[in-house]
Design a protein that fits this description.
The protein is mainly alpha-helical. The chain folds into two domains: about 140 residues, Receptor-associated Protein; about 240 residues, Type II secretion system (T2SS), domain F (Receptor-associated Protein). The protein contains 16 helices and three strands. Strands 2-1-3 form a three-stranded antiparallel beta sheet. A hairpin with a 5-residue loop joins strand 1 and strand 2. It is elongated and about 100 Å long. It starts with 5 loop residues before the first strand and ends with a helix. About 5% of the residues have low confidence.
Length: about 425
């Protein structure tokens, strides 16, 4: 059942120290908004109604609804986290730090900035930082909220935020490296397919008409290329529809749990890219798990967060099953050893870390090792893919060109005789 419509106000006020404070607040009316601000020990200077909003806001659009969606890119969130950590360690009060960063962020990312302002309003009203962040899942993911909660409990919020910034920057750097490695082969493949379709649909038919007027038997290679060209011309709509259906089917299958598991299993077992995807998955698991454990998050909660944020259905299934075995009192490494996803070196390192009490340190070393492996694999794949794509493009275009000009050359030889 929807709640009654409320008002959203933008305010300018002064705190007990005389500093100006800006933000947004939701209330039934202007008098109610002013009363809420006074309860927060704020002296109202100006209060302007910005919109009327439903009492129940949409997911991911902040508490107040309306306006730009409350979301942030990983790079922006990492920068905010780093700055927040620096301000808190310098002794700046939490609310003041949030207000400064919110005002600064509004200039570059309005949705993110408004989300930070609304988060600051919640804190000013007595809400914990982690709880207020949990209201904005498109800005602060689950792992972020849990680490902030652990930082609040331990009194080391600035240290935890610094670790979070390191974690996000390392994760984003790894993701960018993978994207840059995949960009060249994808673009090359699109170019090869585009050139091939253009030649077969628009160029080959013109030469086919010329060959038909001249008569005579065509070489086998020309007959095959002409046959493919005719088939494409007659079935171009079918081909386009089939491609669209394949893309839609892919998206629908990926949305199902079983479909994701099958697709991720296929990706991990691909002959060339499979080992790369496996190394990326293990690096991400180790870094996330190490960051959570070092921040004071309990091991069962950390396993659940790592599973849900792994981005791989096979890894998620394995980690959730591992959480259940750990809950029963078994070692962490005992179930991981039964999974084909985790190499023996990783499970043995985890086992040593459990016995020695240095699990997060060894997980960090595992992550660093696999980051280096990913970097080396990406570099070798990039240097290998470039000549392969050039050869493939040369072969495809060369076969079509040969099929077109070979009959012409044969005819010239006959004329010269």
């Amino acid at each position: 059942m929807a709640l009654a419509t409320r008002m959203r106000f933008q305010y300018l006020a002064r705190n007990p120290d005389g500093r100006e404070v800006k933000g947004f607040i939701e209330a039934d009316n202007e008098s109610d908004a002013a009363g809420r601000l006074r309860q927060q020990q704020l002296s109202v200077v100006r209060l302007d109604q910005t919109s009327a909003v439903a009492g129940k806001s949409g997911a991911g659009r902040g508490l107040f609804g309306g306006g730009p969606a409350r979301r942030a890119k990983v790079a922006d969130l990492a920068l905010f986290t780093r700055q927040m950590s620096t301000m808190i360690s310098a002794g700046i009060p939490l609310i003041e730090a949030m207000d400064i960063l919110a005002e600064q962020t509004l200039e570059t990312n309005k949705g993110f900035g408004i989300g930070l302002q609304e988060c600051s309003d919640l804190i000013r009203g007595g809400t914990e930082l982690s709880e207020s962040m949990s209201k904005f899942p498109r800005i602060f993911p689950q792992i972020y909220v849990n680490m902030v909660k652990a930082g609040e409990a331990s009194g080391q919020l600035d240290v935890i935020l610094n670790r979070l910034a390191d974690f996000m920057e390392a994760t984003e750097a790894l993701k960018s490296e993978i994207k840059s490695a995949m960009t060249y082969p994808v673009i090359s493949l699109i170019l090869i397919l585009g050139i091939t379709f253009y030649l077969l649909i628009f160029v080959v038919p013109k030469f086919e008409q010329m060959f038909a007027r001249l008569g005579g038997d065509l070489p086998m290679i020309t007959q095959v290329v002409v046959a493919i060209s005719k088939w494409l011309q007659n079935n171009i709509i079918t081909v386009v529809v089939a491609m669209v259906v394949a893309v839609v089917a892919w998206v629908m299958v990926k949305r199902t749990k079983q479909g994701r598991r099958i697709m991720d299993t296929i990706f991990l077992k691909l002959p060339v890219f499979g080992p790369l995807f496996q190394k990326v998955a293990i690096s991400r698991f180790a870094r996330t798990f190490a960051t959570l454990l070092s921040s004071g998050v309990p091991i069962l909660g950390a396993l659940e967060i790592v599973a849900t944020t792994s981005g791989n259905a096979v890894l998620e299934e394995t980690l959730l099953a591992t959480r259940d075995t750990v809950k029963r009192g078994e070692p962490l490494s005992s179930h991981l050893e039964t999974s084909w996803v985790f190499p023996p070196m990783v499970t043995k390192m985890i086992g040593i870390g459990e016995r020695s009490g240095a699990l997060e340190q060894l997980l960090g070393k595992v992550s660093d090792f696999y980051d280096q492996q990913v970097h080396a694999t990406v570099k070798s794949l990039t240097s290998l893919i470039e000549p392969i794509m050039l050869v493939v493009m040369g072969l495809v275009v060369g076969v079509i060109v040969l099929a077109i000009f070979y009959p012409i050359l044969e005819m010239q030889k006959q004329v010269q005789k």
